[in-house]
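Shape is hard to put into words, and the shape of a protein is harder than most. The fold becomes a row of whole numbers, each drawn from a learned catalogue of backbone shapes. The outcome of that step, for a single protein, is printed below.
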Amino acid sequence: MDISIIHSDYSWASSPVMWGALGDDKLVSFHGGQINGGIATSGNLSAYGQDWLLPAPDGDGEITLATATGSVTLWYSAHMQASTTLRSISCTLNTNQSADPLASCAIGNNTTPFDWTAILRTADGSIIEQLSGTVAGGQQATVNLSGSNWQRTPGVHTLTVLLYNSDGVLATTASQDYVIRATGWNVGVTLEEASDGRVNVLINRENQQILDNPHCKVVIAQGNWEKTLQIDVMASISPKLTIDRPAGPADLPVNALLTCEPPWDIDDDMADNNASLILKSQTSLVSVDSDLLYGAGATILVVGVLYLLGLLRPASAAEKSRA
């Protein structure tokens, strides 16, 4: 037997030799850098979390991966058999991340035994719980998986439950997103009117160092007018932004709403995420043309000089009477 060894930056992370039921898709994974997609003998690969779904392989085949550096071809061998065990199978995850069990799978009835393996895992592949068992012929069963071993950290996490049969075929899967929030921190917003009539937007922070890449914004509104400001709450000093005075009536309040994307959407004091400000009335000033002011000043100066030189004086009462 001749074996060719090829150097490649990409290789199989899962086994390239597969067993299972005919017509079932297989979950495959690869070592290497970024993979943008792939085409297999049996069809196109579909992204599935950190893995890829190979559609219904049967026999020997190849997968051509599209990578950042070009195409890479890998080979596989799939030994698939017609399934003789047909059961209805479904899995669900509880939307409440504190529930126990966190995931459940229902395995329907059939006349033949059914061997199964159920896995509850995180998006990075860490296994929270794994169970295996057999459902006897003529019986049905419910498989419960606990989330008690899940090491929760603040963030948005995706958990997935997978159920395989004895051939290693993925029978069903389900996923659920969970938001884990942190406590012991707070951000707020305050509005103040500057001496020039503009509006200062002040961000108040407490223990903000525990935040991890938060995306926050402040929406300033007055009537139908609105402006959105992106806020860096992790800046070295508390952010202070200044905006032009809104053009609305002085008695119409300027409102501010500070929001952050999950999991940083709820802090210790939600009340200070809102602020309101009534601006002072501004005095209207009449605009005077500079040329007019210059001309008037020059006229007054000339008249004054003529008066001091005696060339211009007001008429006396006697002169007025003779006239």
Helices lie at 290-308, 317-322. The domain at 89-180 is CATH 2.60.40.3880 (Immunoglobulin-like). DSSP finds two helices and 24 strands in the chain.
